[in-house]
Design goal:
This protein is an all-alpha fold. It has one domain. Helices cover about 65% and strands about 0% of the residues.
Amino acid sequence: MDGSGADDAGSRRIAMDTGQVSAVASYYRRSSLVLSAVADDLASHDFGTWARGSVVPEADSVAFGPLAAAYADMSTTLSRRLRVQAAAAAALADTLRNSALTMADGDGRVAVEISRALPAAGVDGR
């Protein structure tokens, strides 16, 4: 290469294994579904109910209400964070899948154009 960027085109090729990219996209899609299911499960439970209204025997009269609230807060926070992660995984899966489809489609279109430009089998293209 002479520094002008005019080297052969083969040295600047980009390759994508669309099958592998699709497999990774599927992984992230499944991850998104799992994260959403866990978030739904957390949101469907009322954490800390065991501590609400509970009081230690008369001598140590301490209410567990703050602890119940902390458990409820924790499950709400976890559920919210899991939903954010699920959305991010779904977006990544969509982007990867769309990229693989676009590349495969482009390869198909280019293959047709290249085959039109090549001489027919058995014909001397000189």
